[in-house]
Specification:
Helix content: 25-40%
Strand order of the largest sheet: 1-6-5-4-2-3
CATH class of the largest domain: Alpha Beta
Oligomer: single chain
Largest sheet: 6 strands, mixed
Shape: globular
Structural class: alpha+beta
Number of domains: 2
């Protein structure tokens, strides 16, 4: 066993492999831009697509879900997983948010919430930890805390590659141009590591009789979180429903609400919650509105839809409430300034 692989309870994985020998199974990859396939020249050259070959060589029929969305964390992952992954009844789910999450209590809780949701769906959950190639950092410290607590298996790309980069055995510029997203060669390297990991799981066979979900390590307040988009009722004063339909999971900037003029507002009433986030679009080319958030009429924070980095537009997810449940919970977003680009409210997580 190499130290960049770690193994927990293999009961669910073995059951999924056993099922796959005679029946179709579904395998999902859930994560950020690396999972989505960023910087691969074609989608079939990203690691998630390349790993499909291992499954196809082994089993009768395997359906695949790529649920990667760039620049997103386990906070949004915990809310969108119900519709985009769990509803499709996956047998195996591989999670990778290790370069988007941070080593903080907030992400420890959101990551655990996501893992618990998937475990409650009876899926076999596998973990993966990518890295920033310039300094090797990622969030696997907290993610492996969850792995140990829930007795899960995983593969650390950081532990596999970064020592070789430091030793000069791998030239980082040959596998990534921006020190984060692998190129085709880098994605192939990732796929080989994941396939090697899966082969070891497959060869291990069934080593446990069953698996039971442990008690929570954190409060896991996003374990039952829901994502509210324009399908929910809202009071619109200048905001318009964005009726554009998503064509793919990564098509995140649709099915929300839009507004452009100072004074435009939207009010949503959601069930009481101890933890609430909202998502909105930030524009790399600027010229976008600034808004304020009010809860039950009280100011909470400002939202700036202008993005100061040039790599692309961003789905920004921000916390707007943490505390005791309130009997009444009305969220109002009001534009303080207008802009050529509309303010794009995407969703509320609660």
């Amino acid at each position: 066993m190499k130290e960049y692989f770690y193994f927990g309870n293999l009961y669910r994985v073995a059951e999924a492999f056993k099922k796959a020998k005679e029946n179709p199974i579904t395998v999902a990859f859930l994560g950020g831009s690396i999972t989505q396939g960023a910087n691969s020249t074609r989608i079939n050259r990203c690691y998630a697509s390349l790993v499909q070959k291992w499954f196809k060589d082994k089993f009768k029929e395997v359906n695949f879900i790529n649920a990667g969305i760039g620049a997103t964390t386990s906070i949004l992952g915990s809310a969108r997983v119900d519709e985009q992954v769990i509803a499709l009844k996956p047998d195996i789910v591989m999670i990778d948010f290790s370069v988007n999450d941070e080593n903080t209590e907030e992400f420890l809780e959101s990551y655990e919430s996501l893992v618990r949701k998937l475990l409650k769906s009876d899926a076999a959950v596998l973990l993966m930890h990518n890295l920033y190639y310039d300094d090797g950092h990622n969030a696997q410290e907290i993610h492996k805390m969850i792995a140990r607590h829930y007795n899960l298996s995983g593969v650390s790309i950081r532990d596999a590659l970064y020592p070789k980069i430091l030793a000069g055995d791998i030239i980082r510029e040959e596998i990534t141009e921006d020190m984060l997203h692998p190129n085709d060669k880098g994605h192939k390297l990732l796929a080989d590591l994941v396939s090697e990991f899966l082969e070891k799981l497959y060869c291990a066979g069934e080593t446990e009789q069953d698996y039971s979900i442990p008690q929570k390590l954190t409060k896991a307040r996003l374990e039952n979180a829901k994502l509210y988009n324009n399908k929910c009722l809202a009071q619109l004063d200048g905001f318009k429903i964005d009726n554009r339909k998503r064509k793919a999971i990564k098509d995140v900037f649709k099915e929300g609400w839009l507004a452009k003029k100072a004074g435009d507002s939207i009010t949503l009433e959601i069930p009481p919650s101890k933890l609430v986030y909202i998502g909105f679009k930030r524009y790399k080319n600027g010229n976008a509105p600034i808004a304020e958030v009010l809860i039950n009429g009280s100011f909470v924070r400002r939202l700036d839809a202008n993005f100061d980095l040039d790599w692309g537009d961003k789905c920004e997810v921000v916390k707007i409430f943490e505390g005791k449940r309130a009997k009444k919970f009305k969220i109002t977003i009001k534009l303080l300034t207008g802009g050529e680009n509309p303010f794009n409210l995407l969703f509320v997580i609660a």
